[in-house]
Amino acid sequence: MTAMTEKSNNQKIHILLTQPVPEPIDQIMAREYEIHRLYQADNPENMLAEIGLLIQGVVTGGARGLPREIMAQLPQLKIIAISGIGTDAVDLDLAARRDIYVTTTPQVLTDDVADMAMGLIITTLRRMSEAEHVVRTGRWPDTTLPLARKVSGARLGIIGLGQVGLAIARRAEAFSMPIAYTSLAPRDDVDYPFMADIHALARSVDVLVLAASADGGQVIVDAPVLDALGPEGYFINVARGKLVDEAALVNALQQRQIAGAGLDVFAAEPRVPEALFSLPNVTLQPHRASATEQTRILMGQRVLENLAACFNGQQPPHRV
User: Fold this and answer.
1) Relative to the CA of 41, which of 120, 168, 199, 295 has its CA 20 to 30 Å away?
2) Which of 4-8, 20-24, 37-41, 178-182 is the least confident region?
3) 240 is catalytic
4) 269 catalytic, yes or no?
5) Domains, the chain, ranges and CATH?
6) Is the pLDDT of residue 7 over 50?
7) Catalytic one among 14, 64, 127, 287?
8) What's the pTM?
């Protein structure tokens, strides 16, 4: 994983880090490159004005990406190395015009995201967060909780049957959950029913999981979809918050137009609609689907591979 990161004048290549990486990965980066930590800057604009001409690589996350205004301040940029699989927060057309590589970390975080989806399903349907709060606040056994929803056997609908969606389906099979899905096109390697109409899918299931790619950036789950899901249905999102009409989702939860939701992502992260905080039928997570030590280190290793290839004059192995 060693990179040829020394220039002819023995100066290290300058890398902009927009967010922390695991300590073992950080140590390697600091040894191989000259690291500038944007997330620690008191004044990011001043920092970029000072070092922008030096930066040849950016390491960032899928949700954070790299805004166009920052790209404009990095004229020597050669690679945007995303620790994640989402590219929706990077202007790919602009990167292509400037011959900037954009890389991701595929086939690493699938299991963790699928595990999070199943965790959200179980926690939300079984009202585990609400029950834990009762115990933690010393209100058990004086508080009578509503009965929960059985998970095993619940009908599952998946929006987006890519790697993550398929991994969720495989896990759901162990819970005897009938599975149907919608996607850009039907897969020929699964037996799950394909439903082109997302509204029909929502009407037919008890749990609707959003696992679609966010590269298109358009709202997929809106008020009509939530209405089709109905007052006995649950919504789970491990994709991107911007794929959901968040105002419609909040309203559907407040008005009990759907039974509950499990959310790992939000439209304007890290800001979360305050209305969700007081709803007992909602499970909230701070975008942590891939946040395990093992997976984040593997993601960091993919990032290092992509950086090394780029600065060794090769095409990065995980370019988009």
Assistant:
1) 295
2) 4-8
3) yes
4) yes
5) 14-108+293-311 (3.40.50.720), 110-284 (3.40.50.720)
6) no
7) 287
8) 0.90
